[in-house]
Amino acid sequence: MSNTSISAYFSAFASDISHHSLPNKFTYPFCYQPHPLALAASEELQQKLEKFHPVDTEQQGRMYGVLIVKDTQGTLGYLAALSGNANENNTEKSNIDNDASINFVPTIHQAYNQSEFEKEQQVEINGINKKINLLTANPEIDRLTVLLETEVANSVEEIQSLQQQMRDNKKARKDQRTWLSTAALPGDEHRDISIALSRA
User: Fold this and answer.
1) CA nearest 7: which of 78, 97, 64?
2) What does the alpha-carbon distance between residue 56 and residue 78 come to, in Å, rounded to a whole number?
3) Smaller CB count within 10 Å for the chain: N or C?
């Protein structure tokens, strides 16, 4: 769709939807009741299919979908998509591609056929995925992960030990100051001990 504006595939509602409001959030995709707006859009699409794109009852593997959207002016409408096996009937293919009353968004393979840039991007993405697969399959990852976890555990233990030592030293200095405040010592000795404690 890179060469065509998304507005070309936008369908405004033909029916009155003023009594419906947009949901506040998406529903759980695997177990939900379709929103009334989605049902209204699907019903409109079914009506268009009956007129412009009759379904071959012998065909299997075809799915249709709708997505509720707003255009740049804020008008509520929907996009229609077609997925699965297309009929080999050339007339029907022409209807799918050209009939403005249906406005199916292009399929993925159609989009790539339209854009060399997207083809190049896909090659690059495939290359990145290949590198990721090679890196994640590296047996060194498990060894290094264990090593990292061990180093982290040792660091935590060492930090906790140093913190405890600092608490013990602080308590020892406090005890010495308490003793010094009551000890009967010569002036010079008292001063030297006091200075030493202040520097500790």
Assistant:
1) 78
2) 24
3) C
Tokens for 17? 């939807």
Q: Residue 25 carries which DSSP code?
A: S
Domain borders along the chain are: 10-113, 139-199
The answer to whether the beta carbons of residues 69 and 79 sit under 8 Å apart is yes
Which tokens hold the place of 92? 């029907």
In terms of Cα–Cα distance, which of 159, 138, 161, 157 is closest to 149? 157
Amino acid identity at 80: A
CB 88 within 8 A of CB 65: no
pLDDT at 99 over 70: no
Cα dist from 36 to 22, 23, 24, 90, 111, whole Å = 9, 10, 14, 35, 30
CA 148/CA 153 separation, integer angstroms: 9
pLDDT at 123: 87
Q: CB neighbours (10 Å) of residue 35?
A: 16
User: Could you tell me the pTM of the whole model?
Assistant: 0.46
Say if strands 62-70 and 76-84 run parallel, antiparallel, or are unpaired. Answer: antiparallel
